[in-house]
Write a structure and sequence with these properties.
2 strands, two-stranded antiparallel sheet, 10 helices, mainly alpha
């Protein structure tokens, strides 16, 4: 519950999904509970994605009420996202947990460095076409599934590069997080439903006790984070979160 609350608060503060926090903490929780070492990252990723299925619905509804979600773009990106997320779950299930842990740590370092440098791609006048939408969606869906996130760290700059305003890019990215999380979760479960774990509180890689508690507390606390965000400087928030990601990345490496 504390993990979900903290992740939800951070997501509300910065608009970045809590998967980057949820995955490493669940990794250590599952390790301490005696789950098979070769499945730890897959379980953490699946459970994180399952929580994002619920939180993305809440976030999308909030953005939709402000008429910020560009639904035609969501429909354009979704076919590629679905394919990429499905392949990501199958691929992640076929490699060992240590390889996933290393990839996750590198991804955290990359996101943290980008937040510190505050890099955003320069906009250009080219309109997002179907081919770019499908290939971009596949890449976003695949990588997001490998690291257990809703894809906002990639979808937002991708859309912004195609001359979409940051407001619409963030809102549209929130809507894209739903198919990423749903298909990624189902793909992981499909490849693991016949596996045996140390207790019966799981459906394949999905540990449903953790899923319920993390999702509930994250859902409840996220609005508080959004409220507090207006009273703290953006630079302080960004640097603090980047430092946290660096720490989590180092811990995952060692």
């Amino acid at each position: 519950m504390l993990t979900g609350a903290f992740a939800g608060f951070a997501a509300g503060l910065l608009g970045i999904g809590g998967g980057l926090i949820i995955v490493p903490v669940l990794f250590f929780i599952f390790a301490s509970q005696g789950y098979a070492e070769q499945y730890l990252m897959q379980m953490a990723l699946t459970t994180s994605l399952a929580t994002i299925v619920l939180t993305s619905i809440s976030s999308t509804r909030a953005h939709h009420r402000r008429q910020a979600v560009l639904w035609p773009l969501v429909l354009m990106l979704s076919p590629g996202i679905i394919i990429g997320a499905a392949l990501g779950g199958v691929f992640a299930s076929s490699i060992n947990s240590d390889s996933l842990r290393l990839f996750f740590a590198i991804f955290e370092f990359t996101v943290a460095a980008n937040m510190i440098l505050k890099k955003q791609p320069a906009q250009h006048n080219k309109k997002l076409g179907r081919t770019a939408a499908v290939s971009g969606g596949m890449t976003i869906g695949f990588i997001s599934t490998l690291v257990g996130i809703g894809g906002g760290t990639m979808t937002v700059p991708f859309l912004h590069w195609f001359n979409i305003s940051m407001r619409n890019a963030v809102a549209t990215s929130a809507a894209c997080g739903f198919p990423i999380a749903l298909i990624g979760t189902l793909s992981f479960i499909f490849t693991s439903y016949d596996k045996t774990f140390s207790n019966d509180h799981s459906l394949g890689y999905l540990q449903y006790d953790a899923f319920l508690f993390v999702a509930a507390s994250s859902f409840l606390v996220a609005p508080l984070g959004a409220k507090v965000a207006h009273s703290i400087s953006e630079k302080t928030l960004r640097l603090s979160f980047a430092l946290l990601l660096f720490v989590l990345g180092i811990i995952m490496l060692i």
